Structure formats: C-alpha cells, structure tokens
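ok so for the tutorial part 2 we go from a plain amino acid sequence to predicted structure tokens. step 1 is just haveing the sequence, like this:
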Amino acid sequence: MAAINLSDLDAFMAVAQARSFRGAASLRNVSPSSLSEALKRLEADLGVRLLNRTTRSVTPTEAGERLLQQLTPALSDIEGALATVKSQRDRPAGTLRLNVPVIVAAKVLPPLVTRFLTLHPDITMEIAASDSFVDVFSEGFDAGIRYEEKLERDMIAVPIGPRTQRFIAAAAPAYLAARGTPRHPSELVNHACIRHRFASGRSPDWEFERGGKAVKIGPDGPIAATNVEIEVQAAVAGLGIVYTFHEFLDAALQRGDLVEILHEWSVSFPGPYLYFPSRRHMPAPLRAFVDFIKNERPA
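step 2 — the prediction. this is what the tokens look like for a chain of 299 residues:
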C-alpha cells in the first residue's frame, strides 16, 4: 500500500464531519474539487470506499465511520503538537547552548544573559567557556562567540558586546620601582613576564603596535597559567608584568594595585561576534537571543 498523505486524511475528516464537500471547503477555505480529489486518492490508496455521495448528502460508509472515530483523537494530538511548536516560536522556550571564549564568559556575557533571561523566562542557557578552537556545532552547541579573525567565512556573524577591546601590559608599582618601567616593548626581554598558556600548552607571543609599526615579543618569566585570575594575582603580588585584555585588569588598575605600561603601544581590535550557520529554521531560543543582541547598543 502506498504511503498515505496526511492532508488527504485531513480532507476526509473535514468532509465526513461537515457531511458536505461544499461546507467543508468553505470551512477550510479551499475548493470543493480539491477535497474531492483528495478523497479519491485516499480511497484509491486504501482500496475501500469511505463516503457515500449523493446529490443530496455525503455520509460515511461503515469503514469511513470507523476511520473517522480513530482519526479524530490522533489528528487532534498532531494538531496539539504542532501548536506547541508554533507557541515556542511566538514565546521562545527551550535551551540555548553557547561556546564562548573565557573573556566573553567573564566580562561580556553576564549582564547580557541577566537581561535576556529576565525577558525570556522559558529559556535556559548552557554556556561553555573555552579558548580552544573547536567545531562548536559538531559538539552540540547552537552558536559560538569568537573574534573576527577566527570566524569561518560561511558563518553569519552578529556583533555582541563592546565593539573595540584592547590588550594592555601592566605591573605592580613595587615591581616597577624595583625593576624600572619599560619604555619600549623590546625592553620586556629584560623583565619577568607572566605568561598565559592555552590548554594546548602553547603560550602566545605579546604583540604591540604604534604608528603602524608592530613589535612581537616572546615573553619569559617565573609563571605561566591557563587561568587569568592567577596571572592577575601574580602581577599584583609583584612577580612580573602581565599582558591581557584590559577588562581583566580594570579593577586592579582602578584600585592602584597595577599600573598600565607601554600605553602608546597597546593593541586595539574589534570586539567579539555571535556566529551561527544559517538564519533558516533557527531554534527559537537562538532566534530570540539574536534579536535581543541586535537591539542592544554595544559600546
């Protein structure tokens, strides 16, 4: 037996309940002929007559009556399921899974997430913070957040958070008093540098720029950490010079625990982007988050 078209079953139910092709067509806003064709297909697929048709009336056959009784609750369940899906589109619900860099999880997302979840109480968020470059979609995430140079070209990218960020160098006043203040990035080779280490084990170079001239330094020093808080605390304790996102150092700078150095050489770059593969059939929580981000006014 050929696969049964659900729309043909729906047409049968409409005609059987209305006892009229014309009446059912009026209720469904379709033509009577389209309903008649649907009934012919269904009866041919099943190999049994479902409706008795006369010029005065349309009534179910015995087989048609049994089918109608069984279909009514089943199609009602299907309609309920579809209504639930559509309601999620109108009032987003479900889980939004994001993979983001550590800096974004710590300094960019918290106020955004608070406001977003307040607006959408039926959504939950799962946020994985990692500086490793993974295929976020094969790992089961709905979207990722990365910086421009790490985005795949076929991704849709939406700006999120500050549109400009800086990497800066800083040290404790006591360290600078004892070791001197570097005036040029090249002088850092004579200083204790607090290095960041990725999970892969790689420690990135420190990059500086002024007036179009770039300088890259391979830092060396007494400590390397994968945790930025450890790096900041080591700098505050006077163990050396730290180089990282300005946002990680702002509180210590405000307190006077650290002093920015080489300010004129600090590197500015575009802020992060929320990215995802397609605008079609987006999960409702992701679509709501994208709309929310677009309405925010990044600095």
